[in-house]
Amino acid sequence: MKSLYDCLKPGLTKAYKSNGHWAANKWANWERFSKVGYRSDTHGGRFVQNYSNKIGAKAYGKYDATKKMPVGSTLAKPSFTVGADGRAAMGPLFIMEKMTRGWNKATSDWRYAMIMPGGKLFGMTKGKNSAGMKFCQDCHEGAEDNDLMFFMPEEYRR
Ligand code: HEC
Q1: Mutation to probe ligand 1, out of 41, 50, 67, 150 (largest number of atoms < 8 A from CB)
Q2: What is the mean pLDDT of each run of 10 residues along the chain (158 residues)?
Q3: Could you tell me if residue 46 is left (phi over 0), alpha (psi between -120 and 50 degrees) or otherwise beta?
């Protein structure tokens, strides 16, 4: 049987297509590191999956052993909700992109972004609504031992 996520993925792929961030048009072909969509309390209680582009895949796949991600690593997290009536709805796409060294000390050179279903850019570090992305950093900086990444609970890792 196809999982709910497999059914949703083509819709999400289309819905995130955006001029706002290049990764919104690419993530669907990247390597997925989560086994299934799992509920993330820290991302609005939505179900999420974690992807990395090729540059970041090797390091991301080492999980807690990873201390530093290569420049250009880009992580994407599509999300969806399931209502009490069992109906699924799309949530935003969360993105973290490792920019060049010295790009932004305050975020360890990570650029956070959030794309809404429909392709609208909600915000991007040092770009549109940068202030609205500060809460991403405020939480992620708690993971300073792992270059600000939290990974997913072990049972959901591939
Ligand atoms: C309150 C804490 C918190 C906030 C706020 C938060 N995150 Fe996260 N983020 C996490 C945790 C914990 C994980 C890993 C587990 C999970 O998915 O729940 C994670 C995982 C991620 C990942 C996958 C990389 C990794 O760390 O393994 C991306 C990409 C991401 N978040 C982007 C964002 C963006 C963009 C925002 C802001 C729009 C944001 N996050 C806000 C806690 C947070």
Answers
A1: 150
A2: 87 97 98 95 95 98 97 98 92 98 98 98 98 98 97 94
A3: beta
